[in-house]
């Protein structure tokens, strides 16, 4: 095995949302850029096992649930999901997008992608283990964008569980629809997956360790969302999983609730208790600070070394793909500025969507957070029971809540539960980010008959 050495301007550890936007921007500015990634492909875990494949499956579930609503009105026909064909559809989308990214990469000068695992040797030197040997790069700038991995807690029998990786990666392990599923974890990944499979007809039992599903999210939003979810989901709170047992082709999960050990069985068990940052080897050894969330950075995305940046899930600030993209561009702009902080990431006002069926989304300050901080807000409200689009689609649960500052009536945040939540939160987020007021939202003539007109109606509700 031979070792190659090369001097370059920029190296990214990772090739996902925290890496490639910066890589393209810097390469187009004339810098020599190398992206490294163990998969050897662009787009990171979002395309491999996250947002894109899971939402491909989610959209099928949404179509199914909509069809069933109309079937209940006496309309003819009720389709069932062909799960293997849906998985093939998901795989095809992933393949199509990988080909698209490969074409983008091929047409960009000054930019290369190397398949391999990176480790720090010193603050300017990164070693990349490839199939042809270890290569060393001396880098003027480094962007750590290695993302996050599935967290599997040390529970006896955890190896008998599937993870989101197993469900959503190309050519996934699960190719046949299970009749029964046990989901361990009531965060957004666990609840979304439970929602998808319940829509397909699977009976799902979800075990949540704490007292609230979607722990840490606004309790009022969660309280509005949960009754709207599929009745095939049974949620058990305060359930501390003790072990998972394989029994032939099925799984038995033992958990403790109220001092009593109980059990639940399923054809499959899904471990969905969260993700943790993927810290490259050598990071701590060269003196980069690692905190509870991940690599420690401020809004400029710089570590204690001004030329080393950490963008995306690896810093744990906002573990979402679109946040990683924005952070990647912040790092690029500051590199072009000579490692001076000229651009800053906003960690607080990033739209977040829970892609259940139906979904929920939020951004900025909520009424619950404001109360905890002693901040007064004025709440604008709109319920989808009066919404024309929701009525057309027989999906009238949920609504919009907007939170304004007294006096200025500047929009501080908001949440949506129900129809089009993931679509609508962007408009609210743009208003938050640009300091718009209730007057601005009320004056805008949003399109009818679309659910977005509820934003203006929620704003007008406070007058």
UniProtKB/TrEMBL annotation:
Question: Where does the Pyridine nucleotide-disulphide oxidoreductase dimerisation domain start and stop, copy by copy?
Answer: 350-458
Q: Which residues cross the membrane?
A: none
Query: Active site: which residues?
Result: 448
Query: Keywords, A to Z?
Result: FAD, Flavoprotein, NAD, Nucleotide-binding, Oxidoreductase
Coiled-coil blocks: none
Entry-linked SUPFAM superfamilies? FAD/NAD(P)-binding domain, FAD/NAD-linked reductases, dimerisation (C-terminal) domain
The record lists FAD as bound by 55, 313
InterPro entries (alphabetical): FAD/NAD-bd_sf (IPR036188), FAD/NAD-binding_dom (IPR023753), FAD/NAD-linked_Rdtase_dimer_sf (IPR016156), Pyr_nuc-diS_OxRdtase (IPR001100), Pyr_nucl-diS_OxRdtase_dimer (IPR004099)
Q: Which domain of life is it from?
A: Bacteria
Q: Please give the positions of the paired cysteines in each disulfide bond.
A: 46-51
Give me the residues that bind NAD(+), please.
Answer: 185-192, 274
Q: What GO molecular functions are on record for this protein? A: dihydrolipoyl dehydrogenase (NADH) activity; nucleotide binding
**Residue ranges constituting the FAD/NAD(P)-binding domain according to the UniProt record:** 9-327
Q: What class of enzyme is it?
A: oxidoreductase
The family assignment reads: Belongs to the class-I pyridine nucleotide-disulfide oxidoreductase family.
According to UniProt, the name of this protein is: Dihydrolipoyl dehydrogenase
């Amino acid at each position: 095995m031979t070792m190659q050495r090369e001097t370059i301007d920029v190296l990214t550890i990772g090739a996902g949302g925290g890496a490639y936007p910066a890589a393209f921007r810097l390469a187009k500015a004339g810098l020599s850029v190398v992206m490294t990634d163990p998969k050897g492909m662009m787009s990171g875990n979002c395309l491999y096992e996250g947002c894109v494949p899971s939402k491909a499956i989610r959209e099928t579930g949404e179509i199914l649930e909509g069809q069933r609503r109309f079937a209940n009105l006496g309309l003819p026909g009720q389709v069932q999901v062909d799960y293997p064909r849906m998985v093939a559809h998901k795989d095809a989308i992933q393949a199509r997008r990988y080909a698209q990214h490969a074409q983008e990469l091929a047409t960009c000068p000054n930019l290369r992608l190397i398949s391999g695992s990176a480790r720090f040797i010193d603050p300017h030197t990164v070693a990349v283990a490839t199939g042809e040997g270890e290569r060393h790069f001396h880098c003027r700038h480094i962007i750590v964008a290695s993302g996050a991995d599935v967290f599997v807690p040390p529970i006896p029998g955890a190896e008998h569980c599937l993870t989101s990786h197993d469900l959503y990666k190309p050519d996934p392990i699960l190719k046949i629809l299970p009749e029964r599923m046990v989901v361990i974890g009531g965060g957004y990944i666990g609840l979304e997956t439970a929602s998808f499979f319940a829509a397909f007809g699977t009976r799902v039992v979800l075990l949540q360790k704490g007292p609230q599903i979607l722990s840490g999210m606004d309790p009022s939003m969660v309280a509005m969302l949960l009754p709207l979810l599929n009745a095939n989901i049974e949620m058990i709170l305060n359930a501390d999983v003790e072990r998972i047992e394989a029994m032939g082709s099925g799984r038995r999960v033992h958990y403790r609730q109220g001092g009593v050990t109980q059990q639940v069985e399923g054809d499959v068990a899904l471990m969905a208790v969260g993700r943790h940052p993927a810290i490259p080897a050598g990071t701590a050894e060269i003196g980069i600070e690692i905190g509870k969330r991940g690599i420690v950075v401020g809004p400029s995305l710089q570590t204690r070394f001004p030329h080393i940046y950490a963008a995306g899930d690896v810093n744990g600030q906002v573990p979402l793909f679109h946040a990683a993209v924005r952070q990647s561009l912040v790092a690029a702009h500051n590199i072009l500025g000579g490692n001076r902080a000229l651009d800053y990431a906003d960690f607080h006002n990033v739209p977040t969507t829970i892609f259940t069926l139906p979904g929920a989304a939020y951004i900025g300050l909520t009424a619950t957070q404001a109360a905890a901080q002693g901040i007064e807000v004025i709440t604008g409200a709109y319920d989808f029971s009066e919404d024309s689009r929701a009525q057309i689609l027989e999906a009238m649960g949920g609504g919009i809540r907007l939170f304004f500052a007294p006096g200025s009536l500047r929009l501080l945040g908001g949440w949506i539960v129900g129809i089009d939540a993931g679509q609508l939160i962007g408009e609210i987020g743009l208003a938050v980010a640009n300091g718009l007021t209730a007057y601005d939202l009320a004056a805008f003539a949003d399109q009818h008959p679309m659910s977005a007109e509820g934003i203006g109606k929620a704003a007008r509700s406070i007058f």
